[in-house]
From TrEMBL:
Species of provenance: Nonomuraea cavernae
Entry's family note: Belongs to the acyl-CoA dehydrogenase family.
Domain named Acyl-CoA dehydrogenase/oxidase C-terminal: residues: 236-376
Designated name of the protein: Glutaryl-CoA dehydrogenase
A GO MF label: flavin adenine dinucleotide binding
Length: 383
């Protein structure tokens, strides 16, 4: 079966980097693929896989000097098989670890990053709120009040991945005195913190998203991220992770394409495989075109990241474009499979459903479009 990497971008990796990516591919195919449908159907996270995932030694790669191209291909491989597992890892590795690595003190990094790297402590990232999504920069309602050598947090968060079982939750709150957004690490079991799993999702069902309530939640000043002084610091984390979501989208549509191609070769109608029909080949080539152009974009984004010259608009463009192309591609894959595309048995249903969440989170297409629009025109069109 031909892979979705039609232009062989994988060959841009160094030999030692390829070995890491291939280990991830083997893990996803052998350990995750066999249980992915059941985990998705039951909406239960496969905690038993965390020790095996830890053995890959891929958590924290960006903070150990790894190239962005390598970390991007790791993200792609995970989402190529299971976007839920890819999202779990993205929240832990990108959002939570990224916040501590970039905004935490030396002591905080020494305290938390090693156990997060070996996955003995799992992280979450709490920014979105029940009444605030796209307007979170100005509309953050969760508050932080200094009280002696502690901070008291009050408010609510929503759609927080990993929050039901995370050991460390990076919570963003607006300080009452200066009105600026600050970051705090709330440790599991802290009084005043509760996380309730969101039920009835139709996408990324394996991911344990939660509603969080903070009621007089007291956090020591030692858990305040000193590098998080304003929302600009929060945005710097999102700039990094939006690029990661673009890689997720490439992985998701690549997995869908490969399954559609395999199905089309095996499925017979009118006495021959449907892959031999012109209309089916047209859909397959459209899917592959979306994968290829999106992969080319995120590869270039990784190069800009490693050169230290990438900007908010670069990540925003990649996130907006790649997720839109993903949404098209998985729809065409479902079309190739007909009715079989809406059940899990044929490997397409999860990709179709999960793509809807990837399309929306970490900045909607509209918001990312406005970020790019402001960059190219010099005029802000935000409300």
């Amino acid at each position: 079966m031909h892979t979705g990497d039609f232009y062989d971008y994988f060959d841009l990796l160094e030999d030692d980097e390829k070995k890491i990516v291939l280990r991830v591919r083997e893990f996803m195919n052998q350990e995750v693929a066999p249980i992915a449908d059941e985990a998705w159907t039951t909406a239960r996270f496969p905690h038993q896989l965390i020790p095996k995932l830890a053995e890959l030694d891929i958590a924290g790669l960006p903070y150990r000097g790894a190239r962005s191209l390598l970390t991007g291909f790791v993200v792609l491989e995970m989402n190529r098989v299971d976007p839920s597992m890819g999202t779990f890892f993205g929240v832990h590795n990108g959002l939570a670890m990224g916040s501590i690595a970039r905004l935490g003190s030396d002591e905080q990094q020494e305290r938390w990053l090693p156990p997060m790297s070996d996955l003995t402590k799992i992280g979450a990232f709490a920014l979105t709120e029940p009444k605030g999504g796209s307007d979170v920069a100005a509309g953050l309602r969760t508050t932080a009040r200094r009280d002696g050598d502690s901070w008291v947090l009050n408010g609510a968060k929503r759609w927080i991945g990993n929050a039901t079982f995370a050991d460390l939750i990076v919570v963003w709150a607006k300080e009452e005195t200066d009105g600026q957004v600050k970051g705090f690490v709330v440790e599991k079991g802290t009084p005043g913190f509760t996380a309730t799993r969101i039920e009835n999702k139709i996408a990324l069902r394996t991911v344990q998203n939660a509603d969080i309530t903070l009621t007089g939640c007291r956090v020591p000043d030692a858990n305040r991220l000193p590098g998080a002084r304003t929302f600009r610091d929060t945005a710097a984390i999102l700039r990094q992770t939006r690029g990661g979501v673009a890689w997720q989208a490439v992985g998701c549509m690549m997995g869908a394409y490969e399954r559609a191609l395999s199905y089309a070769k095996e499925r017979e109608q009118f006495g021959r495989p449907v892959a031999g029909f012109q209309l089916v080949q047209d859909l397959l080539v459209r899917m592959l075109g979306n994968v290829t152009c999106s992969l080319g974009m995120v590869v270039r984004l990784a190069q800009l990241q490693d050169q230290g010259v990438y900007k908010d608009e670069h990540s925003a463009m990649a996130k907006a474009f790649c997720t839109a192309r993903m949404r098209e591609a998985v729809g065409w894959g479902r079309e190739i499979m007909g009715g079989n595309g809406i059940v899990l048995d044929y490997g397409m249903g999860r990709f179709v459903a999960d793509s809807e969440a990837i399309y929306s989170y970490e900045g909607t297409r509209e918001i990312n479009t406005l970020i790019v629009g402001r960059a190219i025109t010099g005029l802000g069109a935000f409300v």
